[in-house]
């Protein structure tokens, strides 16, 4: 065997193809329709504003969210960090939930890029209410860093994909608007929340100044997220995106997939939610684990292991049996359902997980 063939076989043996991959909905591959649309996409230089497919995607996102404008960004992290930069001044605080993505998974960029610190509040099942936020707000004084932004997450990833209802947001929007504090939504999975609540995204997000959402998770696009807001804020966002190195050129090949993600894919998310529910119910009675079924509202299942420090071991055992999942800290495990894992695969994963958890 040539070394080249050996190398290829080695790479293939590491490839997750053939595994039941429940690590994240980010692992979804572009659909056939997306591949065709990408191949046929009309493109131009988007930094000059001349990519017709990107322009169409931005117009479509703005319309679906009932906003003046939208910006296509390479990642959700960049979308959130652009928003933080736009709304804050250095030396301010950002109020968010204690397990928020912007706190734990964005490389401390709120500090490094915008000069802000977090005032994190812990909320049961990740559902932040005005009662959590109001006492954490600080007005400008000579003693304290003032609140510059309130940033919320819906669905809440690390709380298990939990969903904040519209009425809870309504109270927060009223309170924050009265005090003149801007609001950002990390809506990486806002379409999952929208499907779970049966409320259109435009309604569910209407009180936020800006909303970031991902095309590349459960919606199956290969790359890309959107930031939506007023024309003025998005124009400034375009400059910040360039500053971060996010000015892409013939990005229409990506936007073509994004358009299908945005317009076609939300309607099938209910299947992912049903599969997550199925997995959770299969596991929930096991004496080795702690699973709060009330957190299983969308496409995420997080459960704790009663014997501490065993999460990594369980993930490895499942991997040996062809099921991929991830840890959350040292004691918890996360499964995420998505387009590329159907009910039959979830049944198989549940059967294997029940066996392996039983051996712990
Ligand atoms: C995935 C995710 C993001 C963005 O992640 P990227 O990998 O940068 O696209 C932001 N917020 C939440 C809650 C997420 O789950």
UniProtKB/TrEMBL annotation:
Q: Where is each Aromatic amino acid beta-eliminating lyase/threonine aldolase domain found?
A: 21-302
Biological process GO terms, please?
Answer: glycine biosynthetic process; L-threonine catabolic process
Q: Extract the Pfam families matched here.
A: Beta_elim_lyase (PF01212)
Q: Name any cofactors this protein relies on.
A: pyridoxal 5'-phosphate
Output the CDD domains linked to this UniProt entry.
Answer: TA_like (cd06502)
The organism's place on the tree of life at top rank: Bacteria
Q: Which family does it belong to?
A: Belongs to the threonine aldolase family.
Put simply, this protein is called Aminotransferase class I/II-fold pyridoxal phosphate-dependent enzyme
Species name for this entry? Alloacidobacterium dinghuense
């Amino acid at each position: 065997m040539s070394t080249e063939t050996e190398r290829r076989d080695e790479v293939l043996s590491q490839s997750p193809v053939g595994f039941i991959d429940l690590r994240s909905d980010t692992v979804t591959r572009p659909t056939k329709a997306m591949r065709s649309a990408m191949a046929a996409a009309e493109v131009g230089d988007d930094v000059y504003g001349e990519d017709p497919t990107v322009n169409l995607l931005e117009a479509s996102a703005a319309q679906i969210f009932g906003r003046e404008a939208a910006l296509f960004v390479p990642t959700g992290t960049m979308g959130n960090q652009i928003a933080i930069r736009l709304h804050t001044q250095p030396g301010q605080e950002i109020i968010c939930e204690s397990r928020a993505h912007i706190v734990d998974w964005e490389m401390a960029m709120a500090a490094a890029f915008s000069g802000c610190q977090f005032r994190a509040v812990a909320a049961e099942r990740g559902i932040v209410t005005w009662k959590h936020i109001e006492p954490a707000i600080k007005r400008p004084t000579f003693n304290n860093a003032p609140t510059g932004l309130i940033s919320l997450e819906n669905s809440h990833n690390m709380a298990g994909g939990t969903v904040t209802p519209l009425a809870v947001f309504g109270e927060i929007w009223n309170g924050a608007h009265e005090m003149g504090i801007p609001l950002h939504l990390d809506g990486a999975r806002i379409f999952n929340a929208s499907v779970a609540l049966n409320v259109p995204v435009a309604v569910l997000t209407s009180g936020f100044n800006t909303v970031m959402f991902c095309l590349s998770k459960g919606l199956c696009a290969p790359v890309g997220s959107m930031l939506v807001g007023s024309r003025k804020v998005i124009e400034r966002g375009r400059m910040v995106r360039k500053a971060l190195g996010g000015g892409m050129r013939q990005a229409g090949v990506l936007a073509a997939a994004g358009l299908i993600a945005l317009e076609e894919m939300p309607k099938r998310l209910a299947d992912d939610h049903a599969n997550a529910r199925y997995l959770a119910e299969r596991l929930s009675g096991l004496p080795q684990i702690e699973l709060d079924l009330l957190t299983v509202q969308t496409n995420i299942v997080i459960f704790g292991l009663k014997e501490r420090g065993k999460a990594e071991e369980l993930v490895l055992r499942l991997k040996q049996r062809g099921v991929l999942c991830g840890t959350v800290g040292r004691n918890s495990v996360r499964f995420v359902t998505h387009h590329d894992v159907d009910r039959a695969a979830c049944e198989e994963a549940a059967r294997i997980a029940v066996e392996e958890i039983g051996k712990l």
